[in-house]
Design goal:
The chain is mostly helical and 41 residues long. It has one domain (8-41). The chain has two helices and no strands. The longest helix has 13 residues, at 27-39. 0% of the residues are buried. Pfam families: SinI. It comes from Priestia megaterium. Residues 1-38 form the Sin domain.
Length: 41
C-alpha cells in the first residue's frame, strides 16, 4: 500500500474507535476482535 502520509489517521476508523469507547467497549476488545477476524481470512 502506498500512502501519502504514513502517519495520517483514517477518520472513519477513529470515529469507530471513539464510538466503541463511548459504548463501553475497550480498546483491547476492539484489538481482539480485529485480530480474530483477520485470522479467519
Amino acid at each position: 500500500m502506498n500512502f501519502k502520509d504514513e502517519n495520517a489517521l483514517d477518520l472513519e476508523w477513529v470515529m469507530l474507535i471513539m464510538e466503541a469507547k463511548q459504548t463501553g467497549i475497550s480498546i483491547e476488545e476492539v484489538r481482539q476482535f480485529l485480530q480474530s477476524i483477520s485470522s479467519n481470512s
